[in-house]
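TASK: fixed-backbone design
INPUT:
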């Protein structure tokens, strides 16, 4: 039995040790500003890792989504389709722009956007003559959605795709980096993500010239003139040069972090294989997610406990866990929004009602993970 007084956390930052060198550089250059050599270096690193020519680093993943939607011309009265099984940040930027969200269910093979539900929603929208201005596809918990089907539907209906890859930097679909398959892709470097700058985000785009436009919008849309000249609305969204330094050092260890997250998932999968009704989050054959969080579902009737009960019991044993995302179509904020279910029923709700995220920090020791597995088994089997 592991003797630990500390809580085993869900997912905490894991520094490489080189971050301070780049922070120091910003201080030496006195570029304590939202631009500078660290920002340039971080943008180059994000672009090269994802095999694209340009990226814009910004103050958050939410800001990156806002910029993508603005660049797609989303405005008041428009609709935006979005995965329902996500964090609210995926869709808040649509509200900032006065657009209305329509929520699309998950499907069982990926837990991500259901092509069946998307098709139904698009058919319906065409009938009403109100096709969405964008489809926001979320690669949830680091795992890829069924991108072939989703992109084919988006093309058929002429709707651009924004990939919310906030949780999935380092994951791939048919060997292409997640975030680079749609018209825009966004990443988050929030404190609990696979790499972090404490807070930050990035935007990539199919058309590289869109990135220059994003940088412009993110800098208060300040024109290149000898005086302060503005033709359009802008935002203060550029990432600080100090924080970008953390990002450069974090990018050097991203592949190690992805490998460790995948190892953690594989260990849970093996360790919990003999627990009746436990199903670990699935993955497509053509995809390799980053396994940002290891997640599972179980049969509440077989176990006789809800995910919330299990979470509380784990907490009492020093283990931090988290319920799966409560679908957006159940949030009071979106009570009037339309929702399109998968052919198998409301999959996202079922996931929420039966699932749990397990500790997935890359610093977790083997001993700690064994303790988590033994404790989960004990709680679920008894
Ligand atoms: C799916 C998803 N989308 C968007 C975001 C927003 O990112 P940020 O916190 O950097 O604004 C997050 C994380 O916080 C997320 O998990």
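OUTPUT:
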């Amino acid at each position: 039995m592991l003797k630990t007084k500390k809580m085993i956390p869900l997912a905490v930052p894991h520094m490489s040790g080189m971050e301070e060198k780049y922070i120091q550089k910003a201080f030496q250059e006195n570029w304590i500003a939202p631009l500078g050599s660290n920002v340039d270096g971080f943008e180059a690193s994000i672009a090269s890792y994802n095999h694209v020519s340009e990226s814009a680093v910004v103050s958050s993943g939410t800001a990156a989504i806002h910029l993508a939607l603005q660049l797609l011309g989303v405005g008041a009265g428009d609709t935006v389709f979005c995965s329902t099984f996500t964090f609210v940040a995926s869709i808040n930027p649509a509200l900032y722009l006065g657009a209305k969200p329509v929520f699309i269910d998950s499907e069982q093979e990926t837990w991500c956007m259901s092509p069946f539900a998307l098709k139904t929603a698009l058919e319906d929208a065409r009938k009403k003559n109100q096709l969405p201005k964008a489809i926001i596809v979320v690669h949830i918990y680091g795992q890829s959605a069924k991108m072939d089907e989703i992109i084919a539907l988006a093309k058929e209906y002429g709707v651009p795709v924004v990939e919310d890859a906030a949780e999935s930097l380092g994951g791939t679909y048919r060997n292409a980096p997640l975030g680079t398959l749609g018209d825009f892709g966004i990443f988050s470097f929030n404190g609990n993500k696979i790499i972090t700058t404490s807070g930050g985000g990035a935007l990539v785009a199919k058309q590289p010239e869109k990135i220059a436009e994003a940088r412009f919008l993110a800098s208060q849309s300040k024109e290149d003139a000898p005086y302060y000249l503005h033709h359009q609305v802008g935002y203060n969204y550029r990432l600080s040069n100090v924080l970008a330094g953390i990002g450069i050092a974090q990018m050097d260890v991203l592949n190690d972090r992805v490998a460790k997250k995948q190892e953690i998932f594989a260990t849970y999968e093996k360790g919990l294989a003999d627990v009746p009704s436990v199903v670990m989050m699935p993955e497509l054959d053509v995809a390799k997610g980053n396994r940002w969080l290891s997640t599972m579902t179980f049969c509440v009737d077989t176990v006789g406990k809800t995910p919330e009960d299990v979470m509380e019991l784990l907490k009492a044993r020093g283990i931090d866990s988290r319920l799966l995302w409560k679908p957006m179509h159940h949030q009071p904020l979106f009570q009037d929004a339309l929702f399109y279910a998968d052919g198998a029923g409301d999959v996202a709700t079922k996931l929420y009602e039966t699932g749990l995220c397990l500790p997935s920090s890359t610093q977790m020791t083997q001993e700690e993970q064994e303790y988590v597995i033994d404790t989960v088994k004990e709680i679920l089997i008894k």
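COMMENT: The longest helix spans residues 254-271.
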